[in-house]
Specification:
By secondary structure, this protein is mostly beta strands. It contains 2 helices and 9 strands, in the order H-E-E-E-E-H-E-E-E-E-E. The chain has one domain.
Length: 150
């Protein structure tokens, strides 16, 4: 009889944990479009030889100013109401950014999607692009889905 409380203590957690688990009922491709406002793309001649894309989630004026020269092209943003999702892509020739979308999947993950394609100029070019979205909590993870197309 002395072992009964010991066995009960071992079995009780597993007995209580037999309830229904919340099932993930959404497919991986189910996305909800969210309201966003696209910035006007800013193109600059790139004098460095670096290429590639950098992305940023900007929640304050101080974070925006860290973007350097690109920050001067952005109108005043009310960071109490909005978050800026943006990026800079650099290519050895021209570059074009289009089809920007901000979405949330059924698991409340945020995704910023855009298409990047070669531009019509041959000079090395950088393009600053972005979306203003409703304010996201700080430290919100946003997946940047940048699709390069030819």
């Amino acid at each position: 009889m002395k072992r009964f409380p010991f066995l009960l203590a071992l079995l009780l957690p597993s007995l209580l944990n037999t309830g229904c688990e919340k099932e993930n009922t959404c497919g991986p491709d189910e996305m909800v479009n969210l309201t966003s406002q696209a910035l006007t793309n800013v193109y600059e001649r790139n004098t460095s030889k670096s290429t590639g894309t950098q992305t940023f989630v900007v929640n304050s004026q101080a974070e925006l100013e860290k973007l350097g020269n690109y920050a001067t092209h952005i109108q005043k943003v009310d960071f109490t109401q909005y978050t800026l999702l943006c990026g800079v892509t650099t290519a050895p020739g021209g570059v074009s950014v289009h089809d920007q979308r901000f979405q949330r999947d059924c698991n409340d993950r945020y995704v910023y999607s855009t298409r990047i394609s070669p531009g019509v100029v041959t000079a090395p070019t950088s393009c600053f692009f972005g979306l203003l979205v409703d304010k996201l909590p700080s430290k919100t993870d946003v997946k940047f889905n940048l699709q390069e197309v030819n």
